[in-house]
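Explain this record to help learners:
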Amino acid sequence: MTTVKLGLVGLGTVGCGTLNILKDNADLIAARTGCRIQVVAAAARDLSRARSCDTVGMSLTDDPMQIANNPDVDVLIELMGGTGKAVEVVRAAIMSGKHVITANKALLAEHGNELLALAEEKNVMVAFEASVAGGIPVIKALKEGLAGNKINWLAGIINGTCNYMMTEMAKPGNDFAPVLAEAQRLGYAEAEPSFDIDGIDASHKLAVLASVAFGVPLSRTGMLIEGITMVTAADIAWADDLGYKIKSLGIARRRESGLELRVQSALVPKSKLLANVDDVMNAVMVNGNAAGTTLYYGAGAGGLATGSAVVADIVDVCLAIAAGKNNRPALGVPMAKLASMPILPKDDILSAYYLRLDVTDAAGVLARISTSLATEGISIEEMRQQPDTKTGSATLVLLTNVVQEAAFQRALAALNGLTDLRAPAAWLRVEHLS
C-alpha cells in the first residue's frame, strides 16, 4: 500500500474538520485509494490554542514555509487563506515538487494562472474542490460529471452570508441593518462585512467556476461585481408579490461574442429551484448542451462540509499518485490549451429589469415613464401600482423585457430626470435562468 504524507497549513475550522474526517473515515479512505494517508506536519499561527482535532504525532510549527519545504511532505494542504503569505507557501511547495490542495478562492482568482502553469511545469497537481461552495462537489461535477457537455451557463448562490440576509429580510419587520447585525452576532458575517456584502467573495468563486466550466484562464478583469446593499425589504416584498425571490447570484453565461460574468442581486422566479435555497445554504445550477440543467445543493461552509471537499481532493491526489499519473490538469485542460474568450463589458449584458418608482400621483405620469422606456426599446411586461392618498404619491413597480444593459441605463437616466419622481428609481436585474 502506497503511503502518502500530508502537510497541513492552517488548523482552524476547516483544518480540524479535515483532520477529523481523515481520522474517522481512515479505513474507508484507505480502501478507496489503496493509500495509507499520514498527516506528518501542520502549521498554525497560534500553537497554544485549544482545537477540536487531534494533532498528536504531527510536527507542529507556526511557520508555514517549513511545511512547504519539508522533504517528508508529499502533499501540502493550504487552508490559511488570503493572497499574501499563502501565495509564497503554495509557490514554494510546487517548486519543491509537492502536490497542493487548497480551499483558497482568492489565491486562485488572483494568482491561479501563474501557480497552475508552474504546477504543470513541475509535474505536480493542484486541486481546489473546497474553494467554491463548501461541501458541494461542483468543481468535480464540472470537470468530470459534465465533461462531455458544452456549458452554456451557470448561476450560483455561492455566498452564505448574503443568502442568509436575503432570507431574513423576507420576514416581516426585517431590513438590511438589523439583519446584518444579527448575521454578525451569529458568526455568518465578519465584523467588517464588505468582503461578503459587496460581492468580492462571490467574485473569486465565480472566477473559479467560470474557468473550469468554459476552459478559460482565471480572471476577474471586466467582471461585474455588485453586492446586496441596494436591496431593501420593500424590494423583497414587491418581488414576492410579483412571484419572485431576490437572491445574490454569481452568473456566468456563454455568448457568441464572449462571456458574461457577473455577481449581482437579482429577482428569480419562485418556480426555479435556485429561488428556494434559503439561509446559509449554497447551490449552483449548471446548463449543459447534453445534460440540460442540473442543480448542486448543500452546505457552503463549515468545518466538516468544507473538510469533506478537501478530503475528496486528497483522495483524487492519492489515486493519481498510486497510478503514477502526477499531472492531471487543474482546470480540466492544460493551461496552454485554455480558450481565449473576452469578458463582455457591463453595457453588453442582456437582462430583464425590475423598477420601483416613487412618483407624484398625477395624470400623465405613466405615459411619460412609458415614453422614457420606449425610447430605448424597453417594454413593460408587468406592473403594480400602490397609491398613497395621504401624500398624493404612488409606488409604481415595473418588470421589463430583456434588453441590453446600456439601453436600460440610458432609460434609467431619463427616468431619474423626470420631475414626476420623488426619489431616484430603485432597480434590480431579473434572471429567468434559461
Q: What stands out?
A: DSSP finds 14 helices and 17 strands in the chain.
